[in-house]
Design brief:
Helix 1 packs across helix 3, helix 1 packs across helix 5 and helix 4 crosses helix 5. The longest helix is centred in the N-terminal third of the chain and has 19 residues. This protein starts with a helix and ends with a helix. It contains six helices and no strands. Helices cover about 75% and strands about 0% of the residues.
Length: about 90
């Protein structure tokens, strides 16, 4: 399935913002906070593009790929307990 103009636009916007944050030396947690407003569009992109389209986007827009990797890393830290989440039972017992 060919990528739509909207999908490319989303990836380009995410890539542009990520490139600025990376050049500024921001860490993953700072990136997460700074990119919070991009999360709904990223979800839309992930929900609507097929695997071939996502592969194409990650090659053309490395900042978008990096943003996904930041989210994956933070999700792993939350899952492992390295980042405590208020309201979680296991967070209360630590």
């Amino acid at each position: 399935m060919a990528l739509t103009a909207d999908q490319r636009w989303i990836a380009e916007k995410i890539d542009s913002r990520m490139q600025k944050l990376l050049r500024a030396g921001k860490d993953d947690r700072s990136i997460f906070t700074a990119m919070a407003d991009h999360m709904p569009k990223l979800k839309q992109l992930l929900d609507t593009a097929d695997l071939a389209g996502l592969d194409e986007l990650t090659r053309k827009f490395p900042g978008a790929y990096r943003y996904v990797k930041v989210l994956e890393a933070l999700a792993g830290d939350i899952r492992s307990g390295a980042i405590p989440v208020p309201g979680r039972i296991d967070a209360l017992t630590q």
